[in-house]
Amino acid sequence: MKCPACSDLDNKVIDSRLTKAGDMIRRRRECMHCQNRFTTYERIEESLPMLIKKNGGREAFSREKIREGIERACHKRPVSAEDRGELLEEVVRSAMASGEKEIPSSRVGEAVMHGLQKLDDVAYVRFASVYREFRDIEQFLREMNSLVKNGK
User: Fold this and answer.
1) pTM to 2 decimals?
2) How far apart are CA 29 and CA 11, in angstroms?
3) Domain spans, the chain
4) pLDDT of 51-93, one tens digit each?
5) 17 close to 26: Cβ distance less than 8 angstroms
6) Can you say whether the dihedral through the CA atoms of 51, 54, 57, 62 is positive or negative?
7) Are strands 50-52 and 11-18 parallel, antiparallel or unpaired?
8) What is the Cα–Cα distance from 101 to 105, expressed in whole angstroms?
9) 50 pairs with which residues across the strands?
10) What is the pLDDT of residue 151?
11) Three-state DSSP state, 14
């Protein structure tokens, strides 16, 4: 593993632990050249399904795109990095657990929205406004009223 500070390849593992979900190993490493410490994660290579987009097109499942959407929704919100990471892993596990070779992208979007609704109302509404393509303030207000009506 290349050191992010000096790019040297010589480093040692100083600590290894399973993540809470048990699906990754977190390793703390120390560069033998510059003594910089950094963290790496090891996970099983996944066979993720293709996504069927709204327009009927097919796209490879992208963990990075989901992470970016969650990050954008949670920007400047009190949602921990750990909670955001757990939501991402939950969405990915759900897609893999389906066992299908192709799934509708809407299933992934709904899973992200459901997870965000549990974490933070503002992040949920931010994501929903983009995902559901709110065209005007009326749609936005209907979603807000739904949140209030459901006890949030």
Assistant:
1) 0.65
2) 6
3) 1-44, 46-149
4) 999 899 999 999 999 999 999 999 999 999 999 999 999 999 8
5) yes
6) negative
7) unpaired
8) 13
9) 60, 102
10) 62
11) strand
